[in-house]
Structures are given as structure tokens and as C-alpha cells.
Specification:
This protein is 73% helix and 0% strand. It contains 20 helices and no strands.
Length: 410
Amino acid sequence: MSMGIPLFLIFATYGVVNTYLPILLHDLGYGPTMIGVLQGLFEGAGLLFPVFISSKVDRKGNYGLVLILLAVMMVLVLPPLVAFPSFGVTAAALMVFAVGFKGTVPVADAFVSRSLGPKATNYGKVRVLGTVGFVCITVLFQFTRLIDPDSPKSIALWMGIPTALLAVSVAFIPGLLRPRQTAPRAGNAANGAGNDSQGAGSASPTPVTARPRLPFLDRGFSPSFWIGISLFFLGFLGLTPSQRFFSLYVQEYLGLNSYAGLWALSAAAEVPFMFLSGRFIRRFGTVPIILASLVAIGARNLVYAAFPSFGGAVAGQLFHSVCFGLFHPAAVVFVTERVSSRLTAVGLTLYTSVSVGIASVLGNVLGGLVIDLLGYRALFVTFTAFPLIGIAIAFALGRVLVDARPARGV
């Protein structure tokens, strides 16, 4: 579909940032605790802004224009990031960059979900193009000298290149700048009708004035949605060591320079699982897949801790197939099933901001402290507790969790 190239470029940017942001901060002279704090600020800055714009984006359908604005914001802030290496400037630049970086994914996901309509379980088949972008750029860096890991300017340059190309692609691919009108999903119209009323004249849209000022207080969110958000939060908190400190772990603890290739391996492992995620979801449902993913996240951390070697790192990275390749598509489908259709972008933004974002903020700060105080192996063991807590919550609240009926907001 038309979002294929933008998704490729969005996650190519993610490939650079996930792999090299901690390395860039290390090159600027920061230690593990300060890297954790800066990455925590980076994650935190991307939380609130997307939440408050997502409902407006969903109403206006101007997904393409918003993606361009976010991409331009990211590019413009990179020069001061490396030109003025003081804590204040670094923190401010990272926080501005994060607004665009964290905002692109829920906007793109909402566009894809709207485009797929009742075929939302096929989300993984589209999203896999993003993973291909991630794999391509990390493999490129592992086997070429295009990026200099000892140069902040080189890293910043390559953070900007795919981001600039993202803005260009959205501007020139036909149809992406055309506002996309939202339509209620079958069985989820604003008036509770059991059929899609678009064009039928049988249902009037919910007046904007009836919506709460804060989108996350809207009654369109079901109880099972919030339980799911808590499980995703604990899952992504458990993923923090492998998602935010892995490059430093490989470089400092294992003494290897193969972190880009190992990142590529994890992303490649997720490709077939993400591509086939719709089939898994239709057969097993989202909740069993989410529980299996939480188990895999805990096991992954224990593998890194028990086998601190290149082989252990390879094995741990292969767990990404389930820990993200199935976990993320199941989470997206879970969210879209449990919110009213007019709140799709808000629901996905809450998932990205709360479950992923807040988990990353807390995980980065806690992780940096654990590394400085106890070391990398203790980091992985400590974070194993969070997915286990999620599993316990899921079993305790199972009846509510499996309720896939979307809430009826006013």
C-alpha cells in the first residue's frame, strides 16, 4: 500500500536511533547513569504531545501533513545536538527530536488501520515493511563504514537522512497528503448500529462538543483496554535492557563492535512473525499471544544474564521474533478492537505513549542506575520481574481482559 515507503523510512530512522543513540551520548562524554537520564528525558518528551494531537489528527484525517511536520522538526534539531555538547542543550535537543520521533509511529499506525478497515488483522503485513527498513539500515552499517560510531556528527547525519527522506516520500507519493475521512468500523458506529453507516445516512457523527477535553478520559475506552495498556507497559518495561542498553552492553561488557549486526538480527527475526501475525491472531486471539510474549520477554532477559557472550547475545536477539514480532501487532489489534472507532489514533497513541513511552522513561532511568551500581547482568535479571508481574495480572483479571467489545463513547 501507499504507506510502504514511509514506514520503511520511519523504521530506518528507528534503526539508527535505537542502535546508535546511546553510543552517541557515550561519545559526547556521558556515563551510564546520565545516558539513562537523557534517554529517559528523550522518551518522556514524546509522551504528552502525541496524546493531545492524535484526536485532532483522527478527526481531520491529515495524517500525511502531520508526518511531514514531525519529520522536519526532527531534522532541524540535529545540528545543535552535536554542535553544543552540554547537558542542557543535549537534553533540550533530544526532547524536541523525541516529539517527532515518537509522534510518527501512532500517526502512521492510525493511517494504516484506517486504510485496512475491517481487515485490521493484516496490520502486520504492512508494518513488516518498517522492519525491513530497520534491517536494511543496520546491516548496511554493520558491513560498511558509512557511519563512524566514534563521531557524533556522523551518527546525527544518519539520524537525519532517512528522516528527511520520510518527509519527501510523504509529500510526493500520491494520496498521502489527501485528508482521509474516518469511518466507523462495522459494529462500532457512534450510535451503536450494527453495520457500517458510512454513506447510508443512518448514523450521524458524534458532535465534537460532546468529547471530553482530555481524550484519555473518554468513555470510548473499555476496561479491558486499560488492563491491556498495563500489560503492554510491563512488557515494554521488561524490554528496556535489550532495547535501550543493548548497544552499550555489547560494546562495554562484551567488548564487541557487532551491535549493529546484532540489531539487524533481531529485526530480521521479527519479519516472518510480524508478516504472519494476522494468521496467529485469527487462530489464537490477541490475549494468548500477549501472554506468550510476556513469557518470552522474561526468558530473553535471563538468556542475556546467564550467557554473557556473543552466542548468548545472538540467542537473546532471536527472541525478538516473539517479543516484538508478535507482541506489537497483537497489541495494535487488541487496542483497535477495544476502543470506539473515532478514537483509533488516540488509543494507539496511548499505547505508544503510556505502554511504550512511560515504560522507557522509567526503564532508562532505573536501568542506568542498575548498571552503575550492579552491572549489566543484574540489569537483565532485575527487569525480568516486570513481565512476570504482567502475567500474574492477566490471570487475575482474565475475564475482563478477554472482553473485546469496544466501549460506546458519547
